[in-house]
Structures are given as structure tokens and as C-alpha cells.
């Protein structure tokens, strides 16, 4: 329920849509729904359309003299605006965690369709099933979706492995659901697909924050055992498709399990995590117009915090050192730099503590030091490694080269390495490859990338 001050609330009832310019090239659409309840009280909710989050409660609605204030406590946000003479526009600002952004809300008649062009539409020409299985060693229950073709059984199958960060089974990011699109495409081609919520996400239990890449490999091994228990699946044709960090996980699993028939690495790392993070920061900064001096300063700062994260094993001491380094860095920033980075007096402690916890997390400590090459050298099953030419997060030149060298050195006799022109880290057709473009691109996965993956898997799963 919301609070209301005096004013004609009918003026602001209805749907209000606005676009937030978060940073250069990155936009988020916010939709407010304001209505009057039967008892006369006001109810309001907010949807972040591009993040696919809906029904966020607006705890306070204050309207007086054509001035509207909407308070959204759960996200620490406030909209303050004035209703223009036409009654169709609210001109104002969105304030969140110490940052202020201009925001104009326009009255609309119906909620926009947030479905992306490639999102599949039901009814599907295949069967879809909600599944649960155990990683008994870790005490984790994993929840996912299994899609099964309606052609002749038993089917070849793949497990989709998400990238870094807490991801759901569709690998939802910036309003896109790449694993939903990929699983639909492959299932229509006669391949069963299992996609799962990361541990601690959605229907899966366990702690995401305490898990490392190796722990996630254990979850994938449990998925293989589950697929082997299904009579519709051919146990000799079970493969893995890993995106980004999933491309680190797939080789680990392939080395541990003789049941892996093939692996596909989509923007999979071939070099240690620390090297990737330096390259990533440099490339994204350059494409967004950051000057050389700032890039050099960022590199020196990253080097100092990663050094502490790697070398200081005591979490308490590491946290103290990291906090001092970050606070010193913020103190040296200009006001403009602070605003761009999202720092303010109001949120400084919260932001710094969150950064410190990320840096000393088990996942980050593992990622910084893990070199994928020795594992790749042990992979004997067929491998397809693909990268987008414009990938700024896992740059293709350095990573594809390292993957190919490791597979060759290990004596793998069946591997294909491809750089796909014009595609970014999500395999979207992109202008610059910057992550700030992801939400604004309508395409979820390039049809070229889908075809390369589908053709290669079909070729490697044909019954002899």
C-alpha cells in the first residue's frame, strides 16, 4: 500500500513509461503502474522492463500541486517529477544510491511487449519438462528445464552451462534469454537440451556466493548422471555447451567424466582470469572513450587489489587491505569520476564493502589464478571453440589462440576454432562490442552462431 498527500490522484493514475540513460549507450526502461484501491488508498508498482523485473512495490506515492514523488525503498530509488499541462508527461529525476538521472515519464495505454524477437512462442513443437536432481556430494538440489524432441528416441543431448554471476536457466541478461533461444533452436534440430538454474538461484538450492568454478563443474557432473538416467537420452551422445565461464567449466567436466561426448566453448577463456580482466577493462574503456591516463591508473589499481586477493589468504586482513586501497582510489577521483562509477557519500560504505566481498570471494580467488591451458591439454573429446570478433569481455585473439595451442599440444585430434565476424560476447551482431550495447540490441543470438553450433553438433552426433 502507498501513502498519498493531498492532490487529485486521478491525474496520475495509469501506466507511466520512461527511459533511464544509465551510462553511455546503456538504457533501462522503467514502468510505473499507479492505481486507486476500492478503499481509496493508492497502490503503485514499478517494472524494470529491460532487466525483466516486475511488480517492485512503490512504498510511497506523494502527489501535491502537480508534483509527484514515488519512493521505491527496496531498490533505494526515488522519482520526483512535475505533471506537465497536457497531463501526459511527468518531467523529473530518478535518484538512486546517491546518483541522479533525468527521467521523463509518459502516459501509455498498455504495457509494452518485452518479448525479444527471437524468444520462442508456445506451443512448442517439442516437449518441455521441469526437472530436479541432486548433486549429493555438495548437498545441492538443482532445478532446470529439459526439452525433448518428438522425433525418434534416444536423442543426443547437451547441458548448457552459464557464464559468471548468479544466472538462471535461461542465462537472463539485459532483457535477453540466450539459453532459452539456444535450447529452442537445438531441440527443434533433434537434440535434447538440459538448462539449469545455478546453485542458489531460482529453483536450485545451495550457496552461490561460496562456490567456485570447480564447484559448478560438480553440478554439471550431476546433470550428466541425471541425463544418463533418462531412457529418452542416448548416454553415448551427451555433450556440454559452456558460455563464458561455462567455457572454463566444460573442459574441467570433460576431463573428469568419460561420459562427455563433445564440448562447445562459446567465448570460453583460454588464458588465466587475471589476464582476461586486464584485457577486458582496457578494451571496454577504449571503446567508451576513456583517456590513456585513466586507463593506466585503472590498470595499476586492479593490479594492486588482485595482488592482495591472490596473496593474502586471511580474509579479515585481506578485507582491511582492500578497503584501504579502494578508499584511497575513490579519494583520488574527481566528482565526475565518482558519479560515473556510482560512488556517493550516501552509498560509499555499502559500495566499498560489496567490492571487498567480491574480491575475497572463493570464486574470485579461484578465477584470478586458474589457468585453463593444462586442463584443455587433457581434453580428448571433440571441441568446438567459437568467439565473436567484437567480444570485449573474453577477447577472441588471445583466448582462441590459447585454446587452439592447448588442444594441439595435448594431441586432440578433433577440434574446430572459429572467430565469428561482427559478434559480441553474447554472440549478438554488434557495433562496438561494448556491454553497454547488450540491452539495446534486439537480437539475442546471431542466427550464424546458432547455425555453426547446430551444424557442428549434428555432425558429431550422427549415429554411425
From TrEMBL:
Residues 182-267 form the Serine aminopeptidase S33 domain. SUPFAM superfamilies: alpha/beta-Hydrolases. It comes from the Archaea. It holds the Pfam family Hydrolase_4. One of its GO terms (molecular function) is carboxylic ester hydrolase activity. InterPro entries: AB_hydrolase_Est10, AB_hydrolase_fold, Hydrolase_4. This is Serine aminopeptidase S33 domain-containing protein. The lineage of its organism: Archaea, Methanobacteriati, Methanobacteriota, Stenosarchaea group, Methanomicrobia.
